[in-house]
Every structure is written in structure tokens, then in C-alpha cells.
């Protein structure tokens, strides 16, 4: 039985649908990106981040995006955490681990009465609303009065289901250690409910 999920939410431009290492995308939404290849759908739930790739090709593809890739700073990370906290208050969902990195977020979410897709959408929506409310939305300079503000998030998310307590503890440790792997300080968000 599924008891939790390890969810990775990518910022806009972090992981492209045609990344050489693979993605969960079935198609490339933007014509500008299609010249860098078709979608690279993978079926695995294991990380493909360590697979080899051409960094020059990846950088060229990112330059072809409609907006520059989003990189959250520390103030924006706090706003994202505040948005996540609002989701917890409204839904009662439980987050056992959270790492908000410049270009993606790792979460370990306990199973909930809402589907994981619904919970992730609420988390992204409330985080975006908080960024807008605080006037620090990373794509605000690209606002157009005739269109909605672009989302700072990519479409969808990466999710691995957790079906036992041992795997749950390992996922929590992985997420908690993730900032240090990127040379950043350990994160301690009040929104997290630690495992007992």
C-alpha cells in the first residue's frame, strides 16, 4: 500500500521535455524546443539525473525558452514555504521533508484523501500566489496585461511512490540531505512534520 510519495517539482526551465537523460513528457509543447529533439519519455521511477548529457546542447535548449529559466533566491524560497504552509492549513496534508532549491523542490508527502496530483497543484498554486502577493514572482518582468503571469513552475512533476516505512525514512533523509549536496545549508521549514 502506498503510504507517501517523494515529489520533485521543477521550476520553469529546469528539466526540459527533450532532455537527453529522459523525462516523463510525451511531447514537446514549444516549437522553439522541438529543434533540440522529441520528448524523451522514460518509464522508470528512478532518478535519471546522473545519466550523461551534453551541457552545451542543454544550455542552447534553455536559451530557446520563451522566458529565462527560473532560479529562486532565499527570499523567494521563504515565500514558497509560506504558500506550502497555507496548503497544509487548508487541506491537512502532511509534509515529512522539504528542500526548496534554486531550480526545483523536493518533498516527501504523506498519503492524503486528495490525490497527489491535486495536492501538488495546490502546493504550486499557493506558492505562486505567495510569490505574487509579496511582489517577488521571478517572471514578473515578463507580465503582459493581455495574458496571465507565466508560471514559475514547469508542467507536471516527478513522483515516486513510497510503500514502506524503511523507504519512507530513506526518502526523508535524501530530501533533508539534498541542499548540502548542492553546497547549501540544511533547511528546517516549520511546515514539516518530522517522522517519529
List the topology elements.
Layout (H helix, E strand, L loop, with lengths): L3 E7 L20 H4 L20 H9 L10 H18 L3 E6 L3 E7 L5 H18 L24 E5 L2 H17 L15
Helix pairs in contact: 3-4
How is this structure best described in words?
The protein is an alpha+beta fold. Helices cover 34% and strands 13% of the residues. It is built from 5 helices and 4 strands. A 4-stranded antiparallel beta sheet has the order 2-3-1-4, sandwiched between helices. β2 and β3 form a beta hairpin. The longest helix is centred in the middle third of the chain and has 18 residues.
Structure summarized in a few sentences:
The chain is 34% helix and 13% strand.
Name the structural class. alpha+beta
Percent helix = 25-40%
Major β-sheet, in short?
Answer: 4 strands, antiparallel
Q: Largest beta sheet: what is the strand line-up?
A: 2-3-1-4
Q: Summarize model confidence as the mean pLDDT.
A: 86
Question: What general form does the structure show?
Answer: globular
* Gap from first CA to last CA: 20 Å
Spans with pLDDT under 50 lasting ≥5 residues? none
Query: What is the count of helical runs?
Result: 5
